[in-house]
Amino acid sequence: MLSWILVLYVYLTLFVTGGIAVYGVVAKRNIVKKIIALTIFNDAVNTVAIFIGYRLIPRPLPPIMPTIHPNRQIYSAFISSSVDPLPQALVITAIVIGVAVTCFLAFLAIRLYDRFGTTDYQEIKRLVRGGKR
Amino acid sequence: MVPAVDPLLGLVVLVLALGGFTTPLISRLSRNRYAVRTYPLIYCAASLAMASLIMEHVWVAGEPVVYLLGGWRPPVGILYIADGLSALLGVVTSLVMLLIMIYSTGYLEGSGREYTYYSLMLLLEAGMLGCIYTGDVFHLFVMLEVTSLSAYALVAYIRDKREALYASYKYAIYGGLATTIYFLAVLFIYGGVGSLTIGDIHLRMAAYMSRYARPVFLCGLVFTILSFTAFLYKAAVFPLHFWLPDAHPEAPSPVSAALSGLVVNIGVYGIVRFAYTIYHGLPDPGLYSLSLMITGGLGCLSSLVGAVLMASYKDVKRIIASSTIMNIGFMMMGYSTGSPLGIAASTLHLMNHSFAKSLAFLSSGVLIKSAGSRVLERLRGLGRALRYAGIPFAISLLSLAGVPLFNVFVSEYLLAASFIHTGKWVFLCFFMASYIISTIVYLRILYEVCLKTPAAPTTHRSGREWIPVAAMLTALSITCIITGILSGYIISKIIMPASQCLYTNTEYLETVKKYLLNIH
Fold first, then answer.
1. Is the predicted ipTM greater than 0.90, yes or no?
2. Looking at the domain assignment, is residue B395 inside a domain?
3. Are the beta carbons of A45 and B180 separated by less than 8 Å?
């Protein structure tokens, strides 16, 4: 019972964190804070992935075969109690991609500050639009 | 019994990525400017040859061809699969990319740091072809990120331009959010169904629906909403189109052509693949009709919003970019009719729009560079002064406006026919309204740029670097006219089989089933 409440709590926390992060990306005015919110969202989603790998097993084991010569019984015990390694592989890929996107955005933020002298998104928008209309 | 595995499918993406990563190296090793320009073209030409061969293999085999990455079978390994639609899109993408790259060799003369441009363009093409040929939802995420990251960087290619930096930041921050949301969608479908292969997801959903109808439906619902959010962002469909009028015009013209003509297609392709291959033919048709409803409703709004935006701008590139929003709306409406005729019309429109839109951007790029401004008044009569760009620009505008004899007319006519055929009168109303508004705008640009007498004599440049530009503009113009004249042949030989295969989806699923690893 307690473990179910804990699992529910963890998922709830992650989704609330993700929701706040999305709000941060959309609503924050500072371009660096927008990037930080995006990385928080990435991390929340990655943690969800890890938890999906745990498959709600009561006592999860690492995905490593205990013997070199397994038989059918060991296989079935392994499959029923080990953590699914695939979401972890997905998370590694997603983290690497997230680093690339964050790097690029950080570069853009530096360039934007360089060219506009401000980190306020609305101010930048006003300066860009003001020059045109 | 088992059809031959086609290694070209896996090779084409790898070859392009290799080209993308070695281009900066070549520019270090060789001080010759021509080497840096011709080296990427080799890869583009090779990818076009490979995509054409893949299309021929699909045509000869009469069923989808596959490639198993690393030899691992589907639910465990990654599957590359090409059916009629992906083969066609692959050829269109690599053909237009090759023309854009040759055009760039002349257009970018003297801009400096050219190798970064060619490197990013090759990676963009690698990402797009990966998205098109993959049969795995997570691999699609990776390739989507490769495409997007190259696209963000290309928008900010002129990195001292303030507008370009702002547009790139806007595109990248919301794009990063959209692709992460897609990753969340992938996690939901993996947690719910236990597979990442597109065909296998359909088979498993169909199997589980008999016992667990409600949980599978809920999982599919969340998956649809999250993944469609990402694809609608990439395709710039109405509520998520806000980045496009900034990002597409601020890039250099050849990049605008690639983004507006090709990259938006990836979003449309993703939606179509999910709606027809995963949801069509499930025991419970709820998800299928839901996805068509989202596509159709947003497509209607998108077409009208695109047309109104077109009428509101004075900047030529912004007008042409907004017309992309409208045309994507047309394609979404056609795909959401759920009939083979509508799918065929939309597929044809996808192809025709790619040719006409990239021609419009490439030819307007020459005029804009000569005038030094993008405002319509400043371009008055320039089309008559610079004939080699003015005539292709006129052809692209006439084609986009849907004038008979040109290619877009055929696909728009077929779209209207499919709306009447399936009794979607609301679609027809939205279609006609945006069609009329957009035609007026196109013809106004045509009149201003190509028919009026020039206000002042322009500086006439006739250097050697304009030879590839003029040649590519001519080639794309001829493509626009030829695909218009031969559209009957193209529809019957290429488009109809592709849309039939997409609509029934049994061939695709049978092919995936053949390669599935039998776990039980």
1. yes
2. yes
3. yes
